[in-house]
Amino acid sequence: MTLTEWAQHVCAELELQDEIGKADVDRILDLAKDAAHSVARPAAPLTTYLLGIAVGRGADPESAAALISRLALAQAEDGEERARPDSSRP
């Protein structure tokens, strides 16, 4: 099963009406890569989840992913300290 097929299967099971294709999967994976490498590895799933919330509220997927990627890459370029997990997390 490809990742696109997996995404389509999950969408069907969750009764999501929107189609998801390879371009969508690639966009999400690229965003996850930018977050993981520029912020911190745990930022990848969190960042893609936040993209999902934004898209669910009407944001354009391509524009929102590009904006978030720019934020992540800027984090690395600024030489700022990499994000650490919250101390409240078990």
From TrEMBL:
Any Pfam family hit: DUF6457
Domain DUF6457: 2-77
Protein name as it appears in the record: DUF6457 domain-containing protein
Lineage: Bacteria, Bacillati, Actinomycetota, Actinomycetes, Streptosporangiales
